[in-house]
Amino acid sequence: MSTVAAYAAPSAGAPLERTTIERRPVGEHDVQIEIKYAGICHSDIHQARGEWGNQIFPMVPGHEIAGVVTATGPGVTRFAVGDRVGVGCMVDSCRECENCRAGLEQYCLKGFVDTYNGIDRAGNPTYGGYSTHIVVDENFVLRIPDGLSLQEAAPLLCAGITTYSPLRHWNAGPGKRVAVVGLGGLGHMAVKIAHALGAEVTVLSQTLRKKDDGLKLGADHYHATGDPATFEQLAGRFDLLLCTVSARLDLDAYLGLLKTDGVLANVGAPEEPVSLNVFSLIFGRRSLAGSAIGGIAETQEMLDFCAEHGLGAEIELIRADQINEAWERVLNSDVRYRFVIDAATI
Hints:
Order of helices and strands: EEEHEEEHEEEHHEHEHEHEHEHEHEHE
EC number: 1.1.1.2
Helix content: 10-25%
Oligomer: single chain
Cofactor: Zn(2+)
Family: Belongs to the zinc-containing alcohol dehydrogenase family.
Shape: globular
Strand content: 25-35%
Largest sheet: 7 strands, mixed
Keywords: Metal-binding, Oxidoreductase, Zinc
Domain Enoyl reductase (ER): 13-341
CATH architecture of the largest domain: Alpha-Beta Complex
Number of helices: 11
Number of strands: 17
CATH superfamily of the largest domain: Medium-chain alcohol dehydrogenases, catalytic domain
CATH topology of the largest domain: Quinone Oxidoreductase, Chain A, domain 1
């Protein structure tokens, strides 16, 4: 075991505090990573504040991890000391079920092992990226291409793959009209990726406050959903709506923006149940769907794609002692567009 520094929530809703945690020894197929940067995801806040149930405290959040390999187990074949690597939302899965064998570890039928707030195969709690080091099985480590800076790559391990996976699954590309609902940590990457895939991209946001940003990121159009005329003007226009917000929306109104056979895919997760009139689906053969992150192979594909197209996250780099302040700013939508912790300050 090794003792490393970390920032942890001691209990639900408590401010994060600097502490130490134990990391397991480097096993046969393990990779030890010195964490350089860790992104802050809205889900970190939900988990640490006890809003999603099944919390394990103390909790060290963080599943957007970028760093450098410092040690490898004797059986490791994919990585060497000095490699630039990343870790996303999962650090293991059953590897045996139908979905795992198909490269869909994010939909493991037995449940994947979360990077933090999870229980590993040995029965120990997992701790995330708000720390200086982590030990992960090589099969759940990603290679970060040289074309991406580590600090801009870190948020891609969640925000990037969470938007890339549904855009690829529902064939966003030339000739397709894609609308991104919300321009935040997820939404800004969705715009970049959809544009790079060749789709016609529209941002749908409550106001026009971020319009200039949206257009610079690659959007072709930008509309305010706070204006009822928007839903009349854009009725039946889109092949795909990618909803990145976690607020309750008028799903019937948004479904009305879809073409025949269009899809409204949710990657944001509202805390409360949502409802709709099923006729919004029946008339137009429209679909309401959801998507999680991606599997390991698809996440590597996403990183390579982002490197090829120069798609790093838009970040604000912070010190570890600014985490609690940054969380409050996330809740107030006061970040453009992802906070990233400099792990050297932990």
